[in-house]
């Protein structure tokens, strides 16, 4: 597989990855707001009184009542987490490729791309695990009606005070199971499609915006096809009361026994609806930021 002609500096990958993360959030947050509103709307006595009948209804009502800004409520906390996560992810991927590629004139192979992507997945787990634990607990709390945590910082402090750092990092193994293979496929798909979509004789670095969007969006879909089953297990494990599950195999067994295999793809439509535009924007933001950085500092 053809890689970039020259190696990209890890700092540039980090900064451009952060820009990509901010774009991911800007494009994906409206669908996340819709998803959370649908998931947490109060149970109605009959379908006539239901607040939102579906995704489109929720979109229309939010737009007419709150305007476009209504879709961007509560974006501050995720911005503080998603931009650094994607910065670390692109940094880890770039570093992984450099470590695996002994000669920079030899293109990076598909296997090396996949391993470098998995490497990035290991890197991000350090910040993703506590971020997901806090996010999931807050999301479940808003639908359960019991307010234990006033916000992300309060949640982190309470978890730490109650059961120490182990509690903040509850779900680390499941986060690794979710993110290591999926990030491998994420970057492999993007790089593979970029090469496939590059016309004969042209450089992959001059790919059109529409093709970058297509490659990035598809990478997002592939990422979530792989990530969703462990994501369901992770969310259940991270939000369960202490002692409810003896381990991750117990979560899997319980879920399969109680809800069947379909439970492993819960929330599929909302996740997929968000995955394409959010990740298309992420990779476009990354590529544009990288071009700007290369223009500003061509020699580093
Ligand atoms: C599971 C996840 O966070 O996926 C990221 C993209 C998205 O849609 O949020 C990508 N990555 C796993 C590389 C962080």
From TrEMBL:
Sorted UniProt keywords: Membrane, Mitochondrion, Repeat, Transmembrane, Transmembrane helix, Transport
Family annotation (InterPro entries): MCP_dom_sf, MCP_transmembrane, Mitochondrial_Carrier
Main location: mitochondrion
Solcar repeat windows: 8-99, 108-196, 207-292
Topology in membrane: Multi-pass membrane protein
Gene Ontology molecular function, alphabetical: O-acyl-L-carnitine transmembrane transporter activity
TM segment ranges: 70-93, 113-131
Compartments where found: Mitochondrion membrane
GO cellular component annotations of the record: mitochondrial membrane
Protein name (record): Mitochondrial carnitine/acylcarnitine carrier protein
Organism: Silurus meridionalis (Southern catfish)
């Amino acid at each position: 597989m053809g890689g970039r002609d020259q190696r990209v500096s890890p700092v540039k990958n980090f900064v451009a990855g952060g820009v990509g993360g901010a774009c991911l959030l800007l494009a994906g947050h409206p669908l996340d707001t819709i998803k959370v509103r649908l998931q947490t709307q109060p149970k109605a006595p009959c379908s006539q009184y239901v607040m939102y009948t579906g995704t489109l209804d929720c979109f229309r009502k939010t737009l007419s009542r709150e305007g476009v800004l209504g879709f961007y409520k509560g974006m501050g906390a995720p911005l503080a987490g998603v931009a650094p996560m994607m910065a670390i992810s692109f940094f880890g991927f770039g570093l992984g490729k450099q470590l695996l590629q002994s000669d920079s004139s030899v293109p990076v192979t598909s296997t090396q791309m996949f391993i470098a992507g998995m490497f990035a997945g290991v890197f991000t787990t350090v910040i993703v695990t506590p971020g997901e634990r806090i996010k999931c607990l807050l999301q479940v709390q808003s639908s359960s009606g019991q307010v234990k945590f006033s916000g992300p910082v309060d949640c982190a402090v309470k978890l730490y005070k109650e059961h120490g750092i182990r509690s903040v990092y509850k779900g680390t193994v499941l986060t690794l199971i979710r993110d290591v293979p999926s990030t491998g496929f994420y970057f492999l798909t993007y790089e593979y499609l970029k090469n496939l979509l590059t016309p004969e004789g042209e450089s992959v670095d001059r790919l059109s915006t529409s093709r970058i969007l297509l490659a990035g969006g598809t990478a997002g879909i592939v990422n979530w096809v792989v990530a969703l089953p462990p994501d369901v297990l992770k969310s259940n494990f991270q939000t369960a009361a202490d002692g409810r599950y003896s381990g991750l195999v117990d979560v899997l067994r319980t879920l399969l026994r109680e809800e069947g295999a379909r439970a492993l793809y819960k929330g599929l439509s909302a996740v997929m609806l968000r995955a394409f535009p959010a990740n298309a924007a992420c990779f476009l933001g990354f590529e544009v930021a990288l071009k700007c950085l290369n223009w500003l500092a061509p020699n580093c």
